[in-house]
Each structure stands twice: as structure tokens, then as C-alpha cells.
Specification:
The complex is a heterodimer of chains A (492) and B (370). With 492 residues, chain A is an alpha+beta fold. Chain A folds into four domains: 3-98, Uridine Diphospho-n-acetylenolpyruvylglucosamine Reductase, domain 2 (2-Layer Sandwich), CATH 3.30.43.10; 105-222, Uridine Diphospho-n-acetylenolpyruvylglucosamine Reductase, domain 3, CATH 3.30.465; 227-270 and 280-322, Alpha-Beta Plaits (2-Layer Sandwich), CATH 3.30.70; 337-474, Alpha-Beta Plaits (2-Layer Sandwich). Helices cover 36% and strands 19% of the residues of chain A. Chain A is built from 17 helices and 20 strands. In chain A, α13 (356-370) packs antiparallel against α14 (398-415), α14 (398-415) packs parallel to α15 and α15 (431-437) crosses α17 (468-474). The radius of gyration of chain A is 23 Å and the shape is globular. In chain A, 56% of the residues are buried. Chain B is an alpha+beta fold and 370 residues long. Chain B has two domains: 2-188 and 349-356, Uridine Diphospho-n-acetylenolpyruvylglucosamine Reductase, domain 3, CATH 3.30.465.10; 190-331. Chain B contains twelve helices and 17 strands. The radius of gyration of chain B is 21 Å and the shape is globular. The chains are: A alpha+beta (492), B alpha+beta (370). At the A-B interface, β9, α7, α8, α10 and α15 of A face β7, α7, β9, α8 and α9 of B.
Chain lengths: 492, 370
């Protein structure tokens, strides 16, 4: 009996078990139908799942997990598939559990400022339905028009407004999930805390390893009354970084504080002609919000700091239209960058903010060493950097070098006291760097956490946390990397 | 001394684990009253693990908004260092100093430790508007029950590498590991602050608190006691002024005192020996158990209730509205201090405990019966 026969046997058994789920479940079993599920937005890697299922009720999710557990079949959960670290890449021996059909807003409690949603609800939709009540859902990952809340919880997604409003983990009240035993677990609560260990914190950002999310209660915040946006050009990255520190040192917590370097500025200039000084080495985008008086006062204070720190030019958006224009450079940056070379690979490291100038110099030096161009457009306020490494996919060996450079940049982030991922997740992309950041005892603790929720290891096995054996093997392995996919989604 | 503390602690925990000697982790001892009774084992060979030697600010970069501090550092020392830079721990932790008459400088020699704050997970009146202890924990160093020194999270504001074990430690009452170092996100002290008072019934106060929380107002606390709703506004001076004009009410000149008395449980309501229950409920929940004296904090999210209440009644009452109840001070702890967990969650708790502390030597009994 060969491997093919074995696989066919387990596939037939899984199919039979899933067909027994009640009410009947949408199952995709043909190669043609499975094609769109081969990868998430980490398109350098693909795998055809054994089967894909699209449940519509929490009860079906539970039955799927129970069936897979009984058969020992891995389950990979997937939302909108916008993750860029490969967390939702399927397995050829596993079932892909697609949650996009569970997309109801179950309840919008405007008085309690809570939205109860199913995992397949799009991030932006929550804010859209809450807007008439003057409320919004704060975390705004760049893919927010497409990405799902379930995926946001699984990845603990960030966005451009984290500095003031926090990550996904700061904006959740409760998450219901089906754990690896097939039990329904309610983490968090509708009160502001819950008894026992903070399991909500563990489930958030667990990359589908601890449970399949079936329902989420997100906190809604009042929409700020006023927003002021400034854009400043600097003749050095160091001066811009200094201004970032000065703004925060002055007791101002901006809603957003974003930086772009010369490579990005020039790319934006070519494609959008925003008319910035040709010699600008760094652009800083600062947004402050609050009530009218507060936002105005903060904008004035920020402007003074920017000028004192040597900004060559400062622009203040006079209205919403102009704010949109100022954001255009930031939001359109990745599209603009695609004009340099069509293929690029985005890195996601975080460092203590004071190390920004040094780390950027290190990035440029490393890029020179590899003969590759790197552009930087990132969340300066959080110290979350996103170097974009350009390569030519048609040039043999170019991707390999880009991936190796990416790995070295992340290792430099760890050396600077930072981390290998600020908001994109580990997935399969950064398994190797996990071995750099954590000791074997710490990795063992992570595996113990997983085993507490999923003793049989059927939920998204092999992602997020490397096995100790893999870390040993990585000594001689090349970093697994990938390209920025879904060019239709603006990345920022 | 602090540098040698962790390696020595690892040795000691390893020795205790192999001997089955239970450890009662203790910082300033100001929260000894809180949680279940430590269970030292039948042989009575348990030891107190004093964290005072693990003290000092490791790193503080005001412009990074990040503070790293050893667990045994006194809260008063941490708050003084932050205040010097006009920054603060935004979750406004309670000291619960056992000797409330001490002046601040004397308090610095004792009092609550930062590790105790994280272990108990207690946050003050600012919590609904700023976030809880766990929201500001960026990283922790712990020694688990196997005597291994582990680091989770870090000193940066965004970090999604590995499961969020740092936040798991907040509120775990030392049952999963001995906290040795914690990194926090800190925030600037608001430039202006004011307290408004409104004479309202409890039901109307809860209603107003929720209505205002849905509007762009610089709220930083909302509590009701003795027929008065107090609202604290914090932020830039123009924001506070605009909110004052909008909300009306009477400005309470003694507001700052009220908030610290509420946080430290020094209001008259908290005096005496009657059991104190903490009902944590959705902020919009209608008044509960109206026949018993109570104070409302967290914009309706916490109801403090006094009296020898029937635990079963309290717990079924809060469960009906989706909340949970803690026997916070006094009373008969044998009923369980913390709200009982449903079986699926209890299963995960037991597995986590078994993984982090297989010998069951760290603070047994302080949270549940493990």
C-alpha cells in the first residue's frame, strides 16, 4: 500500500465524515474548486488542501473539528486569506476550514458599544455599520476593506492607528472558539474582565493554533470629533526620527505617526507628483484627533516641533479632501513602489523607536551588501518597520537573496532589542527567526500552551511556533520567504 | 543583588519542585487579603518567597513610552519615576497599602510592588477608558515552576511573535510563574483634569455613563456612590473645558481625592468588616441586588456590594447579565473567591497550570483549587 493509496483512503474517510455533518455542509473536493484556496496572501508558497469546507453555523464548525480530531486530520482555518506570513496556507493532508460564509453581524449594541460578529465579517464593515451611531472599530490593518475579523483576531492585527488606539487585542471583549478537543470555549466576557487566566490574550494572535473562532465581541469607540493631519519633509532620516521622539516626549500621542524614506518618496513623486522637495530624505505623516479644540491645539504643537526639528517643509491639511491627499502618499506607497521593480518582499520588524536611525542605516548597508534596493515606509510611532526589498522574480537567485536579506534585517531587529514581527504574524514565513528570538525553554512553553487548547495538535500544525527539531535543522536551512501578494490591496 | 536574584531563584524553585515544597510569592504583602487561601500542604513546609530583593528600574526611556522594571520594585517608586517625566501607568493601579497613614516618602520604603499589581491584575477607575493592566504589559520575565527563566513579549509596543504569554501572567496570581521583570507601555499624564458631580439615582447614573462613553468626550473615570455620579475628564485643557461646558453638573473641587479614595478603597463604604463583593458586569447592566449598599465604578462595569450575601445568589445574579463575581475582601473564602469556571475553560486552566508548574508549588490555592 503506497502513500497515494493511504492518502486516498484518509481523504475518502474525511469526506464521508464531513458529509455526515448536519445541517449539510458546503464541501469542495475537486481540484478545480480547491485551486483558489491553495495559498493566502503569502503567495510564494502553495499547497492544495485535501478538502475545503465552508460552514455557515458554529454547530457545523464544532462537528468539523470533532470529525477531524476523530480521524487525526489537521484543520487549517482561513478567513479572507489576506495574511502575508502564510498562516492560512493549507496542508495536502488537511481540511481547510473557510469561515467566509459566517459573515453575519449578530448584534450591534450601540448603547453598550459592542458589536457581536461572526468571524467572516469584514473589518471595515464593522465601522461602517457602527458609523451612524457615531462609533467605530479602531484596528485598521491596511487590508481592512477585505480582511475578516476572525483573521484579525487570529493575527492580532495592527494598523496605522495603533499608537493611540491599540492592536486587536486591546479592542476585544470576548471571543468564542472551538478548541482542539471540539469544546466550545468562551474567552473574555461582556464585562471588562473575566475570571481565571486571560485566555482571550492567548487566543488573540494565536494564528489558528488554539481554536477555530466562531464569534467575536469587539469594542466600539466614539468617532473622534476632529482630525488634523500634517506632512513634513526632512533632509535626513535621523532628523525625522528625532522629531518623532520629540512629539511623543512633548506628551502628545498622535493617532498616527508614519515615516517614508527617500526611495519611497521618489517612487511616490514619480507616480503621484505630490511636489515634495527633491532632496527630501524622509517624510513624516502625523495625525492627531480629539475634540475640535484639542485636535487644533495638538496640530499647532506638532507643527512647532516639526519645524524646530528642521523640517524642510510642513503641510497641514485644511480639510478632509486635503487630508486624503496627504495620506495618498502613505497609502499609495506600495503601489508606487511596484514601479521600481514589480516584485518586492515586505518585512515586519519592531525595534525600540530610539534605534530607528541606526536600524535604517543597517538596513541600507545590508541592502548594499546584497546588491538590492530597499524602501522603507512604516509605523514610526510604534517603531514597527516595514522595509520593502525589491527583486526580480525572473532573475534566478534574486528571490533567494531577497529572502536572506529579509532574514538578516529581522535578526538585526532582535539584536536591537526588538521583535521579528510587529503585526504580520509568524505563520510559516518567520519560523526560523522564532528560533533566534526565543530559547528552547520558551518555545517549549509555547508548545505547552498549544497542547492545553489542542492536545492532539490538529489545529494549524506547523505554523507560528517551530518545533525544537526544526530549529536545530534551521542551522543549515534557508529562510522561507515570499512575495507581497494581492497587489490590488493597498498596503500601508 | 538583583542580578544574582534570578539565577538563585531558579535554583531555589528547582529545589522546591523536587522536594514538593510550596512557595508563597510575596511582594509588599498589601494584597495578601486578595484571592483564595494559600494552601501550603499538609506537612506545613511551605516557604514565603520574598520578592523585595528583585528590585529596581531596569530601563526607562520616556520618549519610547516604555518602562522596564523588576517585579519587587515598589509601586510608589515606579510612580515617582514616571511622575518626574510627567508620565503614568495608565491603568491607575491600587496600592492598598496596609498602613494608610504613612507619608509618601515612608511609603516608598514599603507598600505595594509592581509585580503584585501585575499578578493580581487590578486596575483602577481609569480602566474602562484607558485599558487594564494586561493592556499595558508589553513583556514579562518569569521563572516557571520548573525553575526555568523565561522571557515573553519584549520592550517594544507591537509584538506578535509567539503566544501572548506576557498578558497571560497578568492576573494569574503567580500560579504560572514567578514574575521577575515587567515591561510596560506608559502614557503622558493628561495636562488637565476635572471632576463633575451629578445627583442621580444608580439607574440614571449607569444610563448617563454609557451614553457619554459613546460620545467623543475625554472621560477617564465614571463612578456612582451615595446618590452622586462623578465623572472625571482628562486631556488637553481645551478638551476638558469643552467637555465641562457640554456636560454641565457641578465641578467637584475634591475630585482628585475622591478618585484616589475610590481606588484605594478608603471611602466610608469600604470601611468595616462586612464581606465585599466585586461584581464585574457589562457596563449597561441595570442595577443589581438593589437591597444592598453599593458603589458603582468603571462606568457601570463594576458594582461593589457589601454584606453577608449568599454566594449562590450573587453568582447566579451576575451570570444572568453575562458577568462574574469575586469575593474581594472578607467573608467565607471556602465558597470560592473567584467565579467558578465552565468545564471547558477549567480543563484548559488545569493543563496550563500543569505545564508551567508541574509540581504545583507556585501559590497553590490563590486562584482556584490548583
Amino acid at each position: 500500500m503506497g502513500a497515494v493509496a493511504l492518502e486516498a483512503g484518509s481523504r475518502a474517510r474525511a469526506l464521508a465524515a464531513l458529509r455526515a455533518v448536519r445541517p449539510p455542509l458546503a464541501i469542495v473536493a475537486d481540484d478545480e474548486g480547491l485551486k483558489p484556496f491553495e495559498t493566502d496572501a503569502f503567495i510564494a508558497h502553495r499547497e492544495t488542501p485535501m478538502l475545503a469546507v465552508l460552514p455557515e453555523t458554529p454547530g457545523q464548525v464544532r462537528e468539523i473539528v470533532l470529525a477531524c480530531r476523530r480521524l487525526g486530520v489537521p484543520v487549517v482555518s482561513r478567513g479572507a486569506g489576506t495574511g502575508i506570513s502564510g498562516g492560512a496556507i493549507p496542508r495536502s493532508d488537511g481540511v481547510l476550514l473557510v469561515l467566509t460564509r459566517m459573515s453575519r453581524i449578530v448584534e450591534l449594541d450601540t448603547r453598550g458599544r459592542v458589536a457581536h460578529v461572526e468571524p467572516g465579517v469584514r473589518n471595515l464593515r464593522v465601522s461602517e455599520v457602527a458609523a451612524p451611531a457615531g462609533l467605530f472599530y479602531a484596528p485598521d490593518p491596511s487590508s481592512q476593506s477585505v480582511c475578516s475579523i476572525g483573521g484579525n483576531v487570529a493575527e492580532n492585527s495592527g494598523g496605522v492607528h495603533c499608537l493611540k488606539y491599540g492592536l486587536t487585542t486591546h479592542n476585544l471583549l470576548a471571543v468564542r472558539a472551538v478548541d482542539g478537543d471540539g469544546d466550545v470555549i468562551d474567552t473574555g466576557s461582556l464585562a471588562l474582565d473575566a475570571p481565571g487566566y486571560d485566555l482571550l490574550a492567548l487566543v488573540t494572535g494565536s494564528e489558528g493554533n488554539l481554536g477555530v473562532i466562531t464569534r467575536v465581541a469587539v469594542r466600539l469607540l466614539p468617532l473622534p470629533q476632529a482630525t488634523q493631519t500634517l506632512l513634513a519633509a526632512f533632509s535626513s532620516v535621523r532628523a525625522a526620527a528625532e522629531a518623532v521622539g520629540e512629539i511623543i516626549g512633548a506628551g502628545i500621542v498622535p493617532a498616527a505617526l508614519e515615516m517614508m524614506d527617500r526611495v519611497v518618496i521618489q517612487a511616490c513623486e514619480r507616480s503621484m507628483a505630490l511636489g515634495f522637495p527633491v532632496g527630501a530624505e524622509a517624510l513624516l505623516l502625523v495625525e492627531v484627533d480629539g475634540c475640535e479644540e484639542e485636535a487644533l491645539a495638538a496640530a499647532g504643537a506638532v507643527r512647532a516641533i516639526l519645524e524646530r526639528c528642521g523640517a524642510v517643509e510642513v503641510r497641514l491639511a485644511a480639510d478632509a479632501l486635503e487630508r486624503e491627499r496627504l495620506w495618498k502618499s502613505r497609502k499609495g506607497a506600495f503601489t508606487a513602489l511596484a514601479h521600481i521593480l514589480p516584485d518586492f518582499y515586505t518585512i515586519d520588524g519592531t525595534i525600540p523607536r530610539r534605534c530607528l536611525p541606526e536600524i535604517l542605516e543597517r538596513v541600507y548597508a545590508l541592502a548594499g551588501e546584497y546588491g538590492l534596493t530597499v524602501g522603507n515606509v512604516f509605523h514610526a510611532g510604534d517603531g514597527n518597520i516595514h522595509p520593502c526589498i525589491f527583486y526580480d522574480a525572473n532573475e534566478p537567485g534574486d528571490l533567494d537573496r531577497a529572502e536572506e536579506l529579509g532574514g538578516r534585517i529581522l535578526e538585526a531587529c532582535v539584536e536591537a532589542g526588538g521583535t521579528i514581527t510587529g503585526e504580520h504574524g509568524v505563520g510559516i514565513e518567520k519560523l526560523r527567526q522564532m528560533c533566534v528570538q526565543f530559547s528552547p525553554a520558551e518555545l517549549s512553553a509555547f508548545h505547552a500552551v498549544k497542547a492545553a487548547f489542542d492536545p492532539d495538535g490538529i489545529l494549524n500544525p506547523g505554523k507560528a511556533v517551530p518545533t525544537l527539531r526544526r530549529c536545530t535543522e534551521f542551522g543549515g536551512l534557508r529562510v522561507e520567504g515570499g512575495r507581497l501578494p494581492r497587489p490590488d490591496i493597498p498596503r500601508f | 543583588m538583583a542580578d544574582a536574584f534570578v539565577p538563585e531563584l531558579c535554583d531555589r524553585v528547582r529545589a522546591c519542585a523536587s522536594a514538593g515544597t510550596r512557595l508563597r510569592i510575596r511582594g509588599g504583602g498589601t494584597k495578601d487579603f486578595y484571592g483564595g487561601d494559600f494552601y501550603g500542604g499538609d506537612a506545613g513546609e511551605a516557604q514565603v518567597l520574598d520578592m523585595a530583593g528583585c528590585s529596581g528600574i531596569v530601563a526607562y526611556e520616556p520618549r519610547e513610552l516604555v518602562l522596564t522594571v523588576r517585579a519587587g520594585t515598589r509601586l510608589a517608586e515606579v510612580e515617582a519615576a514616571l511622575a518626574a517625566e510627567r508620565q503614568m501607568l495608565p491603568f491607575e493601579p491600587p496600592h492598598f497599602s496596609t498602613d494608610r497613614g504613612l507619608p509618601p516618602d515612608a511609603l516608598a520604603a514599603g507598600g505595594a510592588t509592581i509585580g503584585g499589581i501585575v499578578a493580581t491584575g487590578l486596575s483602577g477607575p481609569r480602566r474602562p477608558y484607558a485599558g487594564a493592566v494586561r493592556d499595558f504589559v508589553l513583556g514579562t520575565r518569569v521563572v516557571n515552576g520548573k525553575g526555568e527563566a523565561l522571557a515573553f513579549g519584549g520592550r517594544v509596543i507591537k509584538n506578535v511573535a509567539g503566544y501572548d504569554v506576557s498578558r497571560l501572567m497578568a492576573g494569574a496570581l503567580g500560579t504560572l510563574g514567578v514574575l521577575t521583570e515587567i515591561s510596560f507601555k506608559v502614557l503622558p499624564v493628561p495636562a488637565a483634569e476635572a471632576t463633575l458631580a451629578f445627583a442621580l439615582s444608580q439607574a440614571d447614573a449607569i444610563d448617563a455613563a454609557n451614553r457619554w462613553a459613546g460620545q467623543p468626550l475625554p472621560l477617564s473615570a465614571c463612578a456612582w456612590s451615595d446618590g452622586t455620579l462623578r465623572v472625571r475628564l482628562s486631556g488637553a485643557p481645551p478638551a476638558v473645558d469643552a467637555a465641562k461646558a457640554k456636560l454641565g453638573g457641578d465641578e467637584d473641587a475634591a475630585g482628585a481625592r475622591f478618585w484616589s479614595d475610590l481606588r484605594e478603597q478608603r471611602l466610608d463604604f469600604f470601611a468595616g468588616e462586612a464581606p465585599l463583593w466585586r461584581l464585574s458586569v457589562p457596563q449597561t447592566a441595570a442595577p443589581l441586588m438593589p437591597d444592598h449598599p453599593q458603589v458603582v465604578d468603571w462606568g457601570g462595569g463594576v458594582r461593589w456590594v457589601r454584606g453577608p450575601l449568599d454566594p449562590f445568589t450573587v453568582r447566579s445574579t451576575v451570570e444572568r447579565v453575562g458577568g462574574h463575581a469575586t469575593l474581594f475582601r472578607g467573608g467565607d473564602k471556602s465558597v470560592g473567591v473567584f467565579h467558578p469556571l465552565p468545564p471547558a475553560l477549567l480543563k484548559i486552566h488545569r493543563r496550563l497550570k500543569a505545564a508551567f508548574d508541574p509540581a504545583g508549588i507556585l501559590n497553590p490555592g490563590r486562584m482556584y483549587d490548583f
